[in-house]
# Entry
Amino acid sequence: MTRRIPAVGEFARYLRTETVGGTILLAATAVALLWVNSPWSESYRTLRDTELGPSGPHLNLTVGDWVKDGLLALFFFVAGLELKRELVIGELSRLRNALLPVIAALGGMVVPVVVALGVGWGDPRIADAWAIPVATDIAFALGVLALTGSGMPSSARVFLLSLAVVDDLGAILLIAIVFTGTFDLLAAAAAVGLLALYWFLQHRRVRTAWLYVPIALGTWMAVHACGVHATIAGVALALLTRVRADPDEDESPCLRLEHRLQPWSAGLVVPLFALFAAGIPVTADTLGQLFTDRVALAVMLGLVVGKLVGIVGSSLLAVRLRIARMPSGLGRRDLVAVAMLGGVGFTVSLLLADLALDGVDMELAKGAVLVASVIAALLAAVMLLRRGRAREEPAE
# Structure
């Protein structure tokens, strides 16, 4: 009896599930750590640092840079599409519903920075590293929630997704502001012009794909050339994409693009980024330094403690002041369990560490991000499982 080979559509649906995306991400991270700490570590560095593409002032990038600056823009495009859909027609379309994850994300950015600055105060490296613990990894956090939070209400996923996207967008804005060395006004004007053209074509209901692909690539190149981190291009294009479907459309451009690109983002882009970002040499000295180095401690405490305190504190304050309201079905203890997932920094935190520091300091900061993300994920998993059991008890 021959075994049936899954169709491409079935495989794409398989990749869309958060559990699969989180598993692939963890597998890529494990491969990176094993590879860089094996006898073949030199081949890892050679592959990562090999220059690829045409020579030019902005395009002579290494393989690792193409993944970090190029492919990761697709990840943020998909995340931006999902956020805009929620804001326009989803659960966040009502102002009071949308305010809570935004306020929680802001609290989850400010408090980790305060914690990191407090722990690293007096160390000159903290002037560059303070932004590392501000971000939450969307794919990893949703993967943990999908695996261990089956007893949680659906509003928990929407809250976590919105929070993670907002604070990742905030982190990208920090990258644009803090880590932009030079700024090319002409390239920036070209990017704005291409974004305006993209919006105009969306507004005029132009559906020809071959027009949008060169506009998107041109926007990415212009943003990269102007000195701003190129992932901003993905976010900007997503927020300009039309969400509401016309009467003659089966699905809107936003939903269609999200449906087609999300498997590529989860199954290829994020794992490739993890493969090249998580390759950190691990020795006994390195592990010891993670718990003695001021910057490493600042990053870990910022993610594990700062994120939890910032998200829960700002959320409860907003609800108490009646600025926002709790998602339907989500209690305070549920909020704490979901907020713990905010400490899973990973993708964007690794990107910030890569931009902020160099050499050994960068490797220590990346190691701190990995350790903090694992701690936060394990603590959140325990909390979510307990909350799931507590929710089942009344029904029994």
